[in-house]
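Q: How do we represent a protein-ligand complex in a form that can be generated token by token?
A: Start from the inputs.
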Amino acid sequence: MELGWSTSDLEFREMIRAEISALVPADIRTRVENIQHLKKEDYQRWQTILAERNWATPAWPPEYGGPGWSPLRRIFFEEACFLAGAPRPIPHINMIGPVLQAFGTEAQKERFLPGIPSLTEWWCQGYSEPSSGSDLASLRTAAVRDGDHYIVNGQKTWTSWAHWADYMFCLVRTSDAGRPQEGITFLLIDMSTPGVTVRPIYSLDGAHDLNDVFLQDVRVPVENVVLRENEGWTVAKYLLNAERTEIAGLGQTKRLLQYAERLAAGQRRDGVTLADHPEFRSRLARIRIDLKAHEWTVMRVMAAGHGDASAPSASVLKICGTDLLERTSDLLMDLGGPAALAYDPAVHLGRANGAAPYGHALNGTAATYLEFRKAGIIGGTTEIQKTLIYKDAAARWGTS
Amino acid sequence: MRFDLDADQRALTATIEKFAHDTYGARSSRTPEDAPADYSVSVWRRMSELGLTGLCVPEECGGLGFSVVEILLVSEILGRALSPEPFATAAIVAAKLLEASAAGPTRDSMLLAISNGEVRLAPAFYESVADYDLQSVDARISDEGGRLYIHGVKELVVDGAGATHFIVTARSEAGEINAYVVPVDVEGVKVSPRLGLDGRWLASAEFNGAAVEGDAPLFESGEALANVEHALDFGNLSLCAEALGLMDRMLHLTAMHLAVREQFGKPIGTFQALQHRFADMVVAMEQSRSVTWMAAAALESGELGAGASDLSAAKSAVCRYGRTVLEGAIQLHGGMGMTADFELAGYVRRLLAIEKTWGDRVYHELRFLEAS
Ligand SMILES: Cc1cc2nc3c(=O)[nH]c(=O)nc-3n(C[C@H](O)[C@H](O)[C@H](O)COP(=O)(O)OP(=O)(O)OC[C@H]3O[C@@H](n4cnc5c(N)ncnc54)[C@H](O)[C@@H]3O)c2cc1C
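Then emit the structure tokens for the protein with flavin-adenine dinucleotide bound:
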């Protein structure tokens, strides 16, 4: 055990902060700091800037063009990005990328990996269905073999960014034999294929991120299967591991906290700034403290690598991250004060330009609270995660 | 003390429930910003025919002369139906404030017009958007040979965009705060609608030398602020009761979802984790009802200043318990709970708007401490 940071790590931290801070385009930074939603082009522009320096895919191994950073340096990088007001990393980079690297054919890697770092090809995740959320393995979207194609029929739902996506990585049913998990296949679907229909779902805050995706007689070439037919569950489980640092929500919590602190410093209430207000001072402190604990938990997990049963599980990361996101957005709702009674969704969501009635920062408080009610639902709900934690824990501590 | 309803109260309840059902029953859910829930003049008229706009107006001014129990009953039903009508503002705060105001032609004609549904008065008290300080008033009155004109800007005027009049706090030439009625259609009034969190329209109201109705303040010197606070206490009582209706509907939606939604081959309501979370929501709802009734009892005497501490206790607790209910409702619905098109969304956003109207949890906790 060696708990301190090395001089070279600290130098790296200085370096990356300075570099990133100089790279973020001013207009993007402004929108990020106002906690307004970004456009697809904003994400693409930023990833292209990073890709020119080989920093677009920090978690990818060097043989696939990653920078080869240690877990600690990846955290420093992420921290530098949020401090500088950069867009948050698009989760799909660390989902579909590592999956193709681990299970893809050479042809799939060649075809799909190059489009990921600068987001020239956008991906979406087609797992959930109307009847299959927490019980994912019950999914029913069917793929039936027809020569060198599959014919896919069914519906996916809650598909984030399907309306921006060029491709969807999708779980489909190819067999009803055996356990439900055993008949699932991981399939890559071109969103421009005839029979794919995307319909928007609007969220509580008015945003359009989610979609229904209807699949009617969609022809997908068999070479778009990842791993093998009926082995999709293996891929999905691997992917869950690959996204576990994503799921920790560290960067997002830091961004929300930064936003809360800026708001608290700038707003006065009852004769003091909110940062000095007895109600908000201790809540801010507690969130900062729990965030530090969480950061160390994330580092322990990153350092442990796959398959180390003594490290905290992905579910522990998810629960801690969810708790922090919920509490920080809850704090924002309260910091908004009376002004949060008004909400102009058009400017917050980037659908219209111009000023918000009482400034962008206040305009975003209630919307952010509403948006982050999602934290306990996405990527496996809080209830499901706690059950998983118990199962792990019972195996680890519950035997004599 | 009795908690069951008498025959008159049951009849009132049945009438309002029928009205709510006829008016809002078949309404499809909506995305607030796609179709803002502006209230309708024709529904307001219907409410006046039922006596609702004059619920608390004294009988000699054309109202029903009812008190806190009826406020509770009506507000809860309107909440359950997600009624967007300006009941708490125009029928409660405005009526209470005018009732308490100095006798005179403005008082009586306005109260009568409230009962008849001819006017909708919006209280315009706040100038800062950072706190709920009723005393930070920069709006001022100029006296030009006995004609009074008002100058200043009021923010976050609840139900302000569709109001016919504002009740505005302003400083007299001597610097003293008083309240004044200002019609929206006189020269020098500029109303800028602001979309509210709940999809209803608030307003910023700008007064550039607008003429004051009746050329007189509503209160004797030095009495306005206490009366404004007292009227807002009744408004907040109505909001707390409305919140009960919202919570009741959220519990209903959630219980139905737990019964019909299946995962892992059974209704999700069979999972104990969800039963327990739902139980937390039920407890929060029951506590909300208790504090709301407690506040009503404390306000019943109508004496100026009475009940402030219990009302603030209730409002702050309802804000807190309300979060327990709305957050639980979202979580137990899974992805569905996050969507704007599902009925729950309107309830969530209205409950949060109530929290932010006329003092939030933080404000009322501090006011409770000061008042008790
Ligand atoms: C903002 C957002 C973005 C999303 N993006 C995507 C995406 O890009 N791609 C994608 O495929 N999906 C996406 N999802 C879907 C998400 O993965 C599902 O919402 C989630 O898995 C829950 O499923 P459900 O909504 O069907 O809820 P349900 O599974 O129906 O759950 C309802 C409630 O029941 C509880 N519950 C269920 N089973 C149990 C149990 N056994 N024990 C105790 N409690 C239980 C849940 O915890 C929840 O509280 C997204 C969701 C959201 C909100």
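Chain A touches chain B through 50 residues (CB under 8 Å). The first helix of chain A runs from residue 7 to 23.
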